[in-house]
């Protein structure tokens, strides 16, 4: 965890000294018969010989009320503290720690140390995202992400069944990798899976434009560049086109590091069935830390393109063969150059250009053959052991 400067520590002195009164608990009411959900109870905080399950560090009564209501709905008691000594004790002992956006500066000034299962929670997306990297914490925005918070409190962990993550890139430029990535995400939705497509390169042309979603509200890389950990409820903040979630480059350039890429992909993988990554122009070193289950390279069915792609495609899990004008090498010769057989053929589809001109997503006007190729990729990825 990063520490604040001396000046910053002084600025939060009032919060740091806080109240010396004991903490309290919110959430499910407890009776002699056990936990009863649906009521909010305030009791004394866990004593020193008790280990709290979930702790909220905050003085914000409104925030505590929201979290208490969510906790009550799933039968969980949350210990609420605001003073330094209680925070230090429960920071070490609690299974899960929620830091209110109002107390994030104090938590940093106290130098509580690094730990897992920390979430910055608050009403303002901008504020929780701002404090996230400084605390090394994931973020939860309430009340928008109340359902995610309920699941987190109920399970005591953010771990869920993880989506499959496939990286799609062109071994050389101009092979339609971005269009295919979008098409695969769209095909997954049509086949009954939830999906997201991510433009990994923030300097790309804007995947939202390709989907016809450029006018839709939602976070893009400029808002996500500082993301760290699991951004809970991320899917609630992204542009959505025909049920396909999209993370794309913004209208203004920004720098996105490997930690932010990893954070966004992990977050989407926790909330969807399939995450499709559009590689763009990123090199292997810029993909370090990004969770990827399988890599698909598109290669051109012509000799120069194949020779240029041979080294990189050797590392890919599957190769897709791009055909079209000037790309007519036989499948036998392609396999001989690459020393492997391509999984599927991606054929030229003039309808895709028309879809782009009309501001439609690729799957709206694409041919049946092209859509079948996208479905073939989905079937292969989702059937991996």
Description:
This protein is α/β, with parallel strands linked by helices and 385 residues long. It folds into two domains: 6-155, Rossmann fold; 164-382, P-loop containing nucleotide triphosphate hydrolases (Rossmann fold, 3-Layer(aba) Sandwich), CATH 3.40.50. The chain has helices spanning 6-11, 13-17, 61-73, 84-93, 104-109, 125-135, 146-155, 177-190, 207-211, 221-224, 258-269, 303-313, 331-338, 350-357, 362-365, 368-382; strands at residues 24-27, 29-31, 34-36, 43-44, 54-57, 77-81, 96-100, 118-122, 138-141, 164-170, 195-199, 240-241, 244-247, 274-278, 294-300, 318-322, 344-346. The strands form three sheets. An eight-stranded mixed sheet has the order 12-13-11-14-10-15-16-17, with helices on both faces. Strands 4-1-6-5-7-8-9 form a seven-stranded mixed sheet. Strands 2-3 form a two-stranded antiparallel sheet. The radius of gyration is 24 Å and the shape is elongated. The chain starts with 5 loop residues before the first helix and ends with a helix.
Describe this structure in a few short sentences.
The chain has 385 residues and is α/β, with parallel strands linked by helices. It has 16 helices and 17 strands.
């Amino acid at each position: 965890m990063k520490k604040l400067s001396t000046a910053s520590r002084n600025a939060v002195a009032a919060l740091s000294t806080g109240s010396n009164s004991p903490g309290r608990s919110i959430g499910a009411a407890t009776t002699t018969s056990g936990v009863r959900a649906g009521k909010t109870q305030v009791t004394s905080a866990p004593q020193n010989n008790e280990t709290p399950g979930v702790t909220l560090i905050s003085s914000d009564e409104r925030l505590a009320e929201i979290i208490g209501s969510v906790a009550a709905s799933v039968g969980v008691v949350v210990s609420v503290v605001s003073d330094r000594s209680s925070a230090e004790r429960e920071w070490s002992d609690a299974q899960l720690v929620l830091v209110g956006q109002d107390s994030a500066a104090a938590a940093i000034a106290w130098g509580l140390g690094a730990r897992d299962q920390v979430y910055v929670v608050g009403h303002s997306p901008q504020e929780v995202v701002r404090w996230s990297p400084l605390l090394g914490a994931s973020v939860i925005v309430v009340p928008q992400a109340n359902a995610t918070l309920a699941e987190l409190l109920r399970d005591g962990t953010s771990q869920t069944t993880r989506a499959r993550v496939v990286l799609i890139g062109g071994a050389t430029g101009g092979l339609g990798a971005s269009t295919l990535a979008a098409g695969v995400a769209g095909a997954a939705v049509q086949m009954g899976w939830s999906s997201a497509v991510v433009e990994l390169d923030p300097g790309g042309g804007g995947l939202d434009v390709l989907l016809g979603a450029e006018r839709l509200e939602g976070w893009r890389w400029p808002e996500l560049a500082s993301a760290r950990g699991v951004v809970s409820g991320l899917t609630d903040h992204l542009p959505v086109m025909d049920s396909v979630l999209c993370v794309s480059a913004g209208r203004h350039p920004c720098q996105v590091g490997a930690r932010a890429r990893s954070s966004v992909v992990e977050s989407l993988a926790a909330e969807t069935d399939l995450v499709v990554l559009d590689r763009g122009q990123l090199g292997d070193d810029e993909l370090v830390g990004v969770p990827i289950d399988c890599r698909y390279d598109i290669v051109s069915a012509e000799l120069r393109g194949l020779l240029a792609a041979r080294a990189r495609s050797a590392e890919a899990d599957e190769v897709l063969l791009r055909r079209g004008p000037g790309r007519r090498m036989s499948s036998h010769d392609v396999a001989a150059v690459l020393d492997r057989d391509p999984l599927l053929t991606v054929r030229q589809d003039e309808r895709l250009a028309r879809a782009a001109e009309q501001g439609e997503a690729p799957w709206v006007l694409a041919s049946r053959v092209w859509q079948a190729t996208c479905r073939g990729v989905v079937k292969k990825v989702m059937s991996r052991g």
